[in-house]
Amino acid sequence: MRRIPYTKRFSYAAPDIGGQLIFCVISNYLLYFYNRRIRHRSSHGRNRSAGGAMHAIDAPVWGIILDKTNSRWGKSRPWFLWLSVPYATFGALTFLTPNLGSGAKALYSAATYIVCGILYTGINTPVTSILSAATPNPGERVMLTTYRMIGSKVGGVIGRISGTYSSPVVPIQRDSHMSCILRASKGASHADYYDLRYAWKIGEKSVIETFEDMDDYFFRFGGHSHHAWEYQGYIEYFARCLARGETPKPDVAEGIGTVALMQAMDEAAASGKAVRVAEILERYGLGDLAP
Asked: In which domain, by residue range, is 263 found?
């Protein structure tokens, strides 16, 4: 069976590179922008919540639209062309501050953010749906998906670097195997997990806190792994629950519920039909544990 040439593989990755270039900048810089330019500290949280709710609706809607599309280019391909310019336009409009009142600015920021997310879904949905038409070879489909994921990561890295250099910086760059960086409008923090260091900066003030003297305490299980501290933390949580006479979570009921969920997923995959967790629990006389 004929292999897909490299030019088409890279072309299949291109939409994710471009999409991530815009969306990662929005994700990294928008909170800082809202607070400094629009001066609505709650806008970002509200917009993200509204965008998440809209995404639960727009993805299936886009699927219906694609299914009903009939053009000389097929069902999926025309949407790459039709939505690319609107997506780039709303990506730019998201970072404009029109001369409006406070409430109008909040509505403007919500509208541009949500529309940008809808258009992003509109571009990504046909990228996924066109895969079955691109080749009947399962191996080639996996290869195309791999190129697409690589393109997404490349665009994401570039976008995050762009957003990072536009945001408040943390203290001196840290060198750690595992770090977590949080950025906000007035400052940032940087936690080095394995090294038990925490650096934070607010305005011109920066501090580096260290807990390296507690290394033997937190990492006494399994060496310096990302689960070691979790073990110690759960031991402490378990001990506190016993001291208070409380039942630690997850308890037996949650464990049984998890097993029932996995069984329902397995049966649904085999039958192609939805299987309710409650049905699994009732089958074994455990209906009272159903959520």
From this structure: 252-289
Whether residue 113 sits in one domain with residue 69: yes
Report how far residue 210's alpha carbon sits from residue 216's, in angstroms, rounded to the nearest whole number: 14
Lowest mean pLDDT among 3-12, 35-44, 144-153, 173-182: 35-44
pLDDT, mean over the chain? 78
- The answer to whether position 226 is within a domain reads no
CA-based nearest residue to 80, from 141, 18, 27: 18
**What pairs with residue 205 in β-bridges?**
202
Q: Which of 54, 53, 32 is nearest to 43 (CA)?
A: 32
Q: What is the pLDDT of residues 55-112, one digit of tens each?
A: 778 888 888 888 888 888 888 878 878 888 888 888 888 888 778 777 787 788 888 8
Q: Does 113 lie in the same domain as 176? A: no
Instruction: Quote the number of domains for the chain.
Output: 3
φ/ψ of residue 242, rounded to 5: -65, -40
Q: State which of 210, 237, 265 marks the end of a domain.
A: 210
Specify the residue for token string 């290869």. Answer: 143
Whether residues 57 and 137 share a domain: the answer is yes
DSSP β-bridge partners for residue 33: none
Q: In Å, how far are 8, 197, 213, 226 from 223, measured between CA atoms?
A: 45, 17, 15, 9
- By the 10 Å C-beta count (0-12 exposed, 13-18 middle, 19+ buried), 78 is classed as middle
CB-CB contact of 262 with 253 (8 Å): no
Whether residues 56 and 175 fall in one domain: no
Answer yes or no: are the C-beta atoms of 20 and 155 closer than 8 Å.
yes
pTM given for the model: 0.52
Q: Write the pLDDT tens digit of every residue in 163-213.
A: 554 555 555 555 567 777 777 777 788 888 777 888 888 877 888 888 888
Bridge partners of residue 179, in order along the sequence: 192
